[in-house]
């Protein structure tokens, strides 16, 4: 089985969206694996060598930011968020689709403007040369990553998310 055939078999998305989903999930998986190794090394060093890994807290915070924001577009366009559908049986499918479109528009608009503000904070952080306390790493780049992934999530929601809502049935 070729790699392309494996992607087609294991991802419900089609075309470049499947490759983007794979790439983002690969980033999340590698980050999670590295966080596991970091935690194991820190615990081993702390209890057996009496010396913890310096900057573990900072690296863990950055890793969690990378992990969460790499998965956010994938979860969003798959519709993986928590949904309360108490009234769905009382409403028609047209009303439910209209409410879904409204929700998609509000989510993508909110994420867009949130990302604009986050990017402004990242620019300010880079201008001021803000760094982490122990490892002396610039924090502005991680904040920029969060803004960019929020923009990608907004775009994914308004494009592929709406496509799924309108054209793909969820039985």
How many DSSP H or I helices?
Answer: 5
- Give the terminus-to-terminus CA distance: 30 Å
Q: Based on helices, strands and strand pairing, what is the structural class? A: mainly alpha
Strand content: under 5%
| Shape designation | globular
Low-confidence stretches: none
Assign a percent range to the helix content. over 70%
Q: What's the average pLDDT?
A: 87
Following the backbone from N to C, one meets helices and strands in this order, namely HHHHH
Using only C-alpha atoms, the radius of gyration works out to: 20 Å
The profile of the biggest β sheet is: none
Total beta-strand segments: 0
Features of the shown structure:
single chain; 171 residues; mainly alpha
Helices and strands in order:
Blueprint: H1 3-10, H2 16-48, H3 56-77, H4 93-127, H5 140-167
Helix pairs in contact: 2-3, 3-5, 4-5
Structure notes:
The structure is a single chain. By secondary structure, this protein is mainly α. Helices cover 74% and strands 0% of the residues. The protein contains 5 helices and no strands. It has helices spanning 3-10, 16-48, 56-77, 93-127, 140-167. Helix 3 runs parallel beside helix 5 (140-167) and helix 4 packs antiparallel against helix 5. It is globular, with a radius of gyration of 20 Å. The mean pLDDT is 87.
Briefly, what is this?
The chain is mostly helical. The protein is built from five helices and no strands. Helix 3 (56-77) packs parallel to helix 5 (140-167).
